[in-house]
Every structure is written in structure tokens, then in C-alpha cells.
């Protein structure tokens, strides 16, 4: 039982530390700020309790004493508790008070530092807080005031330090800050950059000067950088092809990673909305285990999903179990899952649909009693493949490898869905379960599907499809998305 005070970083979920991800993965309870990124909450086990606390500007907020008490109570109950805080937990975040409360109550705690917005947010706007010849120091100051525009900081002294001044929570008090920095000796022409929602798809950078700061059109939350470095414009994040776009990813939790990573690298925000959960087959896996035990008696084993591979392969006890049986994969994702288990697919059709696999599948051998195909697959699936193989003369054993059911997305994910720009469907079943979970009317403005079968399912359910991947892979899907969102 430990309470972890974890820095979540400034927004981009990739800026969570490895240690942060590790403790989130083992959390029983996650106590998070209301503005936490949904994809970070998804790192906690599905069964973990998620409690939203803390401040929303001008909205409801949980008093700090109550948060402290909650952490102590949950910690004492013997639970693994993650207190997830924006940026770094000890930078203007009241982490010190939470740690002190835990220490006083004798509850074990650990601090997992985070990437602070004071440095990372300017970096995402292309502004280095130090630069040779421009700044030899940076001073991080809170602009938090008394509600009447005054702040306790000696701004005149800060002005005399020279170097870069980074102000957090300074939007409301910016006219007092500017006035006093000017009276401390800074020039009105001193460059200023303000970055709102940095390291997030909503990032907005405003450039001004100290003389004009009071009148600049700024909104919270923002990091304000004052000094010569603020004139630098090494923009990179805002130039990524999917920057500013929020894309819903409907893949099951354990498979969302590959698509999510590709999208984030292009600057997109990803909204995880797993609509499907993969569970055991109805018979608990008895038939699948039996099939795995006699796999070498088949001529072919045909896999139509990575899920089937992941369920089947671990049941083989011997690396030689396939014997002479050959292996077919419906597409590269399935072939990749096989390759991870050191099985090289003998056959992958050029188009990744059942019909294409049938076209290239060889005829059965002519000797009687041979010609057996094993097809481990989802409980509910199209019958095109088994029927086509049977029509070609094969004896086909269809074995249930897993069952899919509709997942229940988090309320945070459903709220994010409303603001999303696009959705990427990777299979017919993700479309059907999305409609079940959120309704066809909840689809974001742009809909992209991995292939024709998925697109047909979407259209049947009344969803208009904007683009289909030319190549039916995740890369093809991402390409289609980039094109669809660029137009
Ligand atoms: N512990 C946090 C700071 C919390 S104080 C950290 O280390 O980053 C909250 C302030 O941080 C906000 O008012 C804003 O000034 C700044 N901030 C945090 N995240 C931000 C973001 N993504 N974009 C802009 N400002 C941010």
C-alpha cells in the first residue's frame, strides 16, 4: 500500500514518465484532476476506481483538505493509490501538502516527478527557456494573486535577475506583472510568448511584448515566457500534419497502442474509446485447447485476426507443434502477431479480406481424408471463409477462440468524444459496438475505415464514411485520415 504522487506532464500523454506508467498500471485507485487526459486514465486497470477532484477554473473544486483526507483514507485501506497531477507534483501543485498529510498519517508515499509545463510547454511552442547568448537563467514564478490583481512576488527583483521569466497562472494578473517588470527595468519591447493548452492539440501560441502584455488577448491555462528567448520560433509541434486534431480510436485496449502511437507522432490527440472487450470463448477454451493439441493433423491453420493468434499460439506447448500444417493470415496485422510468436505465415493475400484469401487459397489435395483446415476465430464472424473453403473441397473445423463484447467507455472518454474531429474504425465489429455504446449520431465529423467491409458495415448503420484506406493496414488507415482531415 503506497500513495504515489505522480506528475502527469503537461498534456501530451507521451510525456508521462516510465515510472508513472508503471504505477498507474498497478493502481487500485486513481485520484486525478478533472482536466486529466483520458488516455492516461486508461493506463490504470479497467477495474481501478477513478476519482475526479481538484480545480476547474471558475467551476466546482474539491477543497485541498478533502483531497488530503481521501488520499489518507484510501492509503490506509491498503490500496495502491495514484494521485495524478498535471506537470510536476511539486511545482505549484500542492503536492507538498499532500505528502505532508500522508507523512503525518503514517501512510507510505512515493513521489514520481513529472515533466513540468514551465519547461515543456514553451518547448512545444518552439521556445527554449535558455539559449546561448540570450539567457543564462530562467526563473519560474507563479502569477497567482489575491484575487484583486496583486501578487506576493517581488517582480522588480525578478526583472533584475535577467534571463528568462516563466510565469505560470499569470493570465489574470498579467497587467500587474507587466507593470512591475517594467518598473524593475525591463524594456517594453521585451519579447513575450504565451502558450495556452501547450502540448495538447488545442495548443495556441500568442506572441506579444511586455509593453502590450496587459492588453493581449490571453486565456488560461497558459505559460507566459518573458525575455529574449521568446522571440525564437523553433515551431515543430504545431506543424505536424495532424496537429490540433482529435481522433477517436476504437480498438480494444490491448490493441489500441499501435494506432495511437502512429497518430500521436503526427500531432493528433487520441481519444481511446475501446468499444470491444475480448473475452474467453463460451466453452472456456476447451475446444481451442483440443484443436491446438492436434494442430499438426491439419493441412492449414487460417488466422483471421491477431486476437485469434494471441489466443491460440500460447496453447501450443512445443515449438514444433504445427508440424507440416501450413499457416495463413488474413492480413499483415495478423501476420505480425504470428511473427511475434516466431511463426512465419505461408500465405497472406494481397487484399486483406476473406474473399481475397479464398482466391489465393490452394485446392485441397486429391487423396481422400486429407484436406483439413483449422479456423480459430471469434464466436461471431462472417461465414464467407469457412463456406468458401468448404465449397472448394476443404474440410473445415471452425473453433471459437474468443468472444467479443461491448466495452463500457469511461465518462471522460465519452465527454472527449463530443469534441473529436475524426474516428478511425479498424473492423466491422468496432463499428457495431461503437453504435451500441455511443449511438450512430455520436460519430465525429470525419469517419475513416480500414477497408471496404468495415465501411459497408458503417454505411448500413447509417454512418457516412469519408475515406477508406487504400491499403488495409494501420499505416493505410493513418494515411487516409491525414488526407481526409487535410481537405
Ligand atoms: N504542476 C504543474 C503546474 C500547476 S499550476 C506543472 O508542473 O506544470 C497550473 C498552471 O500550470 C496553469 O495555470 C498554467 O499556467 C500551467 N500549465 C500547466 N499545464 C499547462 C499546459 N498544458 N498549457 C499551458 N499552461 C499549463
3D structure, described in words:
With 487 residues, this protein is α/β, with parallel strands linked by helices. It is 31% helix and 21% strand. The protein has 4 domains: 113 residues, Tetrapyrrole methylase, N-terminal domain (Cobalt-precorrin-4 Transmethylase, domain 1); 121 residues, Methyltransferase, Cobalt-precorrin-4 Transmethylase, Domain 2; 110 residues, Rossmann fold; 126 residues, Rossmann fold (3-Layer(aba) Sandwich), CATH 3.40.50.10090. The strands form 4 sheets. It has a 5-stranded parallel β-sheet with strand order 3-2-4-1-5, sandwiched between helices. Strands 6-7-10-8-9 form a 5-stranded mixed β-sheet, with helices on both faces. The longest helix is centred in the first third of the chain and has 13 residues. It is elongated. The mean pLDDT is 92. The structure holds S-adenosyl-L-homocysteine (SAH). The site of S-adenosyl-L-homocysteine has 25 residues, from helix 5, strand 8 and strand 10.
